[in-house]
């Protein structure tokens, strides 16, 4: 799933994640790509974060819930923090775009 979790209300996000984990075959992996809170606050990570924030804020006129869900998601730590709360089987992660985007890999529900 890519760039969709941050758009969802918390209860919907959890239900979607649980459903996806149930669908993973034994030995398979679930990949998720979404926004992350950068580990370091350097120039490029602040610039990328600002760009993302402005882009998401633009949704206020069309779909206010989208921006509210995004802000809740990011205040909670973004993809990595959220996924760690949901799963005890995260197998790895990578970061991109100055640390503001993350990809996680999770195994099937244990």
Written overview of the protein:
The protein starts with 9 loop residues before the first helix and ends with a strand. It has helices spanning 10-23, 43-57, 64-75, 78-86, and strands spanning 30-35, 90-96, 101-106. The mean pLDDT is 94. The protein has 4 helices and 3 strands. The chain is of the alpha+beta class. It has a 3-stranded antiparallel sheet with strand order 1-3-2, covered by helices on one side.
What percent of residues adopt helix (DSSP H or I)? 40-55%
Strand content: 15-25%
Low-confidence stretches: none
Number of strands: 3
Helix/strand/pairing category: alpha+beta
Distance between the termini: 20 Å
What's the overall geometry? globular
Total count of helical runs of at least 4 residues: 4
Task: List its salient traits.
alpha+beta, globular, 45% helix, 3 strands, 110 residues
What's the short story on this structure?
The protein is of the alpha+beta class and 110 residues long.
Element layout with pairings:
Blueprint: H1 10-23, E1 30-35, H2 43-57, H3 64-75, H4 78-86, E2 90-96, E3 101-106
Antiparallel strand pairs: 1-3, 2-3
């Amino acid at each position: 799933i890519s760039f969709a979790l941050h758009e969802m209300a918390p209860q919907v996000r959890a239900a979607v994640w649980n459903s996806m984990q149930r669908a993973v075959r034994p030995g398979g992996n679930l990949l998720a790509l979404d926004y992350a809170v950068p580990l370091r606050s350097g120039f490029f990570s602040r610039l990328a974060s600002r760009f993302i924030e402005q882009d998401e804020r633009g949704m206020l006129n069309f779909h206010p819930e989208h921006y509210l869900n995004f802000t809740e998601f990011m205040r909670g730590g973004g993809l990595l923090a959220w996924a760690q709360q949901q799963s005890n089987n995260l197998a790895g992660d990578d970061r991109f775009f100055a640390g503001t985007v993350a990809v996680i890999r999770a195994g099937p529900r244990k």
